[in-house]
């Protein structure tokens, strides 16, 4: 946080405290998407991309709209491009829902909030709707900003629950805890969402893993593959809720890969981890339809000798590469299919 002394700046008072809060993109290594079905995952933070919240005291509560929240376009093609990139709603509904849930949490916990208002604005460098958890990053950053502004402490293990409720209860988005856990804890985390554990503790079992254990990782993504992840996963949830044995068995198998992945990481057995990441995606193919463009991402990576699995719900993949020669080949081949390659920054 910092202060401004020019009363004309940001239309606020002299020496008004400016609060800044951030949350970063994330990528799942193994176990995804079993987190929404009492499964297990291992995920890592991706600090190459982040959501940024700026909040400062003002006479009235104001949510400043960003370009993706404004319904004015140059032409119908710009409207089409905007919807493909960010969906129909932009980020403003996420801020509104996060503020509402924060207030409800404080009321439930009998926390009296100071009588003051604020203006809040957001921006995000996370490519939206390609499986890097851009929406949940905005929510986590907003909750962190509100916690600072009102001096409220929310336990680390509870914050992901609150963030998840923002999207599932307020906005009707199908999602799991995984994204919110790793964005809260950061680094690399093994997560167990066993139903009995959650019933007893009111949260999952979250075990940070040393990021130094991680092998050489890359992420490749196509922004034109953007879509709302909740829609992609809704079919799986419907079939799961109906007791489809094939879906249930497959999700259980995917969850078991997290335990095997944790063991491989602790032993630095990257050959096994490479196989587990590939199997995670292959198992997923058994219960959901993968688009040709997404298959192209995976196949391009594997043809270079790298492993490949979705970072989230599709649009980007993560995998292990052996050396710089393989990484350079990945960059060149992914460029041919209009995909960008990065090395995730974790610490």
UniProtKB/TrEMBL annotation:
Residues 263-337 form the GHMP kinase C-terminal domain. Keywords: ATP-binding, Kinase, Nucleotide-binding, Transferase. The keyword Iron does not apply. It comes from the Bacteria. InterPro entries: GHMP_kinase_C_dom, GHMP_kinase_C_sf, GHMP_kinase_N_dom, Glucuronokinase-like, Ribosomal_Su5_D2-typ_SF. One of its GO terms (molecular function) is ATP binding. It is an enzyme of class 2 (transferase). The keyword Kinase applies. Residues 96-187 form the GHMP kinase N-terminal domain. Its EC number is 2.7.1.43. This is Glucuronokinase.
